[in-house]
């Protein structure tokens, strides 16, 4: 019998046993006491006097047993998960898979998925057609007489500005090379002061 079915059957048996104990018990010791809380118009917020459900010793034992089993299963599952993660990491290491290569593969798969969609295909077609149209319009505009006239005028203005700047720089350079005549006359030599 599989392990899961065995546990399920054990739980069913425990519940049936508990139900029989409740039916066969006439004493007040094993009885479950459920009291209805009284409804107050404005109940106080921090009042610990609310009625609690009292559990019998058998119920408490049953719940403790089930809690222990559940915690044991959780512990086992954590151990199994840790072992599987360790095994996975070891296999990846042997295959030479690094986190970067995994990320790269994931991105490539995602990109391939996106590029294969119909929406992407249509967008690519529209972008290509738009690009072709812009190229054609740009070539038409460059070949127009208005653009050629503008280009010619712009070229002339550029050349004029370049010539003016060159002339100004030459003039300033020439002025810097010749000494100024405002100091000592050329014919007189400076005499030392005695």
Automatic annotation (TrEMBL):
Q: For this UniProt record, give its keywords in alphabetical order, as a comma-separated list.
A: Coiled coil
Keyword Coiled coil listed: yes
The keyword Hydrolase is annotated on this UniProt entry: no
GO cellular component annotations, sorted alphabetically? Answer: cytoplasm
Q: Where is the composition biased (Basic and acidic residues)?
A: 7-20, 48-57
The record's listing under InterPro entries reads:
TPD52
Q: Where is this region: Disordered?
A: 1-57, 175-194
What's the family?
Answer: Belongs to the TPD52 family.
| This protein's name | Tumor protein D52
Annotated source species: Caenorhabditis latens
């Amino acid at each position: 019998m599989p392990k899961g079915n065995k546990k399920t059957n054990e739980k069913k048996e425990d519940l049936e046993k508990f139900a029989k104990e409740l039916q066969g018990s006439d004493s007040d010791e094993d009885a479950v006491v459920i009291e209805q809380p009284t409804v107050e118009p404005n109940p106080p917020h921090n009042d610990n006097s609310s009625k609690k459900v009292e559990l019998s010793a058998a119920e408490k034992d049953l719940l403790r047993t089930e809690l222990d089993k559940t915690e044991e299963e959780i512990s086992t599952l954590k151990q199994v998960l840790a072992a599987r993660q360790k095994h996975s990491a070891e296999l990846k290491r042997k295959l030479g898979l690094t986190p970067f290569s995994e990320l790269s593969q994931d991105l490539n798969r995602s990109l391939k998925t996106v590029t294969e969609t119909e929406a992407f295909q249509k967008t690519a077609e529209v972008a290509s057609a738009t690009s072709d149209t812009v190229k054609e319009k740009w070539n038409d505009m460059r070949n127009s007489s208005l653009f050629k006239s503008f280009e010619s005028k712009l070229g002339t203005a550029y050349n004029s500005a370049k010539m003016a700047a060159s002339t100004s720089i030459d003039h300033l350079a020439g002025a810097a090379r010749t000494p100024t005549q405002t100091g000592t006359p050329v014919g007189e030599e400076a005499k030392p002061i005695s």
